[in-house]
Amino acid sequence: YAPWCPACQQIEPTWESFAKESEHLDITVGKVDITQEPGLSGRFFVTTLPTIYHANDGVFRRYRGSRTLEDLQGYILERKWEAVEPVAGWKSPSSIMMHGMAGLFHLSGWIRQIHSYLTGTLGIHVWLSYAIFILATLLIGLFLGL
């Protein structure tokens, strides 16, 4: 979820109720703020918000059903998750490809922090900051090419 997402804000009371019932369902319910954990957003290939996953013994399934409390509970109690195709091997959050994707999301966050530091703290004009990143990209490419 993301705190700024209207759909996430709408499902939050239902999700909190589902989390309170989790002990009776013998499951653990959690939520991840993708603005605080961009690597997980990359690892799980989150493209829409909110995104719900069911994980069991290292097998991940994306929940695409209705987002009512009754349907979420039914998904667990009636074991409807067993009929859902697991996330494909290369898209699995534990795959090497998704580890790399998580790294790219971390890198983008790091670049954003540097840009904010250059423009906000040091007062460098935005276009000069872009020029610095272009130059750094070219120099890194040149260095790696050698």
From TrEMBL:
One MF annotation (Gene Ontology) recorded for this entry: disulfide oxidoreductase activity
Main subcellular localisation: endoplasmic reticulum
Membrane topology according to the record: Single-pass membrane protein
InterPro entries referenced in this protein's UniProt entry, alphabetically: Thioredoxin-like_sf, Thioredoxin_domain, TMX_domain-containing
Taxonomic superkingdom: Eukaryota
Compartment(s): Endoplasmic reticulum membrane
One Gene Ontology term, aspect cellular component: endoplasmic reticulum membrane
Keywords in alphabetical order: Disulfide bond, Electron transport, Endoplasmic reticulum, Membrane, Redox-active center, Signal, Transmembrane, Transmembrane helix, Transport
Transmembrane segments: 122-144
Domain Thioredoxin span(s) in chain numbering: 1-81
Pfam families: Thioredoxin
Protein name listed in UniProt: TMX4 protein
